Amino acid sequence: MSSSTPAALAGVRVIEMGQLIAGPFASKTLGEFGAEVIKIEPPGAGDPLRNWRLIKNGTSVWWQVQSRNKRSLALDLRQAEGQALARQLIAEADVLVENFRPGTLEGWDMSPEQLHALNPGLVILRISGYGQTGPYRDLPGFGVVGEAMGGLRHLTAEPGRVPVRVGVSIGDTLAALHGVIGVLTALYHRKVQGGRGQVVDVALHEAVFNVMESLIPEYSAFGAVREPAGSALPGIAPSNAYPCQDGWVLVAGNGDSIFKRLMQAIGRADLAQAPDLADNAGRVARVAEIDAAIGAWTQTRTVLTVTTELAAARVPAGKVYTAKDIAEDPHYRARDMILQQTTRDGYTVEVPGIVPKLSGTPGTIRTSAPHVGDDTDAVLSEMGLSSEQIGRLREKKIIQ
């Protein structure tokens, strides 16, 4: 799980004080590209994600992905001595990642102003439900709430039916990725503009809102409220899910020339040549008819037959993948998107690969996810504490 390739973020030290998804996903991404990530988690059970979803050997297999390339320092931040140790660690760091409710750091005497007094170059990533300012800042917020406020949940439904979640914690991961962009931007600014750090303030709902495309311009210009459309792409045609004999297939025939090739492939030359269907506006006006024609063709074929025939016609189409489909797909394997990772419990598990792909400094899995406090003694020793001092901290239950 190690690599000799150069790491883009080698020498960058990240202190992670978050838990569950958003903050830890951000530092996971930084760690994959070479940053040293020291995760501070509470003694005892540690990060609650250790116990989320499916458990193997007492630990979530999700944990094996979320916390690879990290070191675990089990430190009680509720105690003053624990807070003092955290400040000492942060004083020598490049990045602090936290996703607590606003005001938590301030309550521990770790406000950005106090931390920048200790470490002027520190980049502080703060991920929260509603951001560090504004009338909602103190409200509790999880990813699902951010998805709702950001406008996404309203659209993830069939018309007239209950809004559904997309199946993963997309609000948290979108916030994490925006946080990574902010951290990298701030580190670059620090390098070229005099060494000063800054705060990166990411709100869950704003990260979701940022990917909502034309939602607000359409409302502003036309008073149009975009509504749920199931699997279709409103205003762009044809782009939908269509039934096959053994499942569903997604077909995107919404380019002008692609549409013509699609209609020829399904035996509808009349639609391919129709003057009013030569552009998107005309196709949107007749979308129900077009969808019906495509569906009539797909439902007499298997998914594999449909995707094979449309690939030959150079029409974008694909099956709806399950986990099994992904794990068995040769393209995923060819691009190292399914990797084997040996856990610290000794078993091997397949995990997602690393995105994005960098040609010169690719991301790597250097170490597996730690047990709670695996690196406590090592990190504190590196900070200059003696074995006697570490022993006293352990006796007081400040560390594990």
Automatic annotation (TrEMBL):
Task: Determine if Transferase is one of this entry's keywords.
Answer: yes
Q: Per UniProt, which keywords does this protein have?
A: Transferase
Query: Pfam families annotated for this entry?
Result: CoA_transf_3
EC number from the UniProt entry: 2.8.3.16
At the top of the EC hierarchy, this enzyme's class is transferase
Q: Which domain of life is it from?
A: Bacteria
Which GO terms fall under molecular function for this chain's record? formyl-CoA transferase activity
Q: What protein does this entry describe?
A: Formyl-CoA transferase
Give the species. Answer: Ottowia thiooxydans
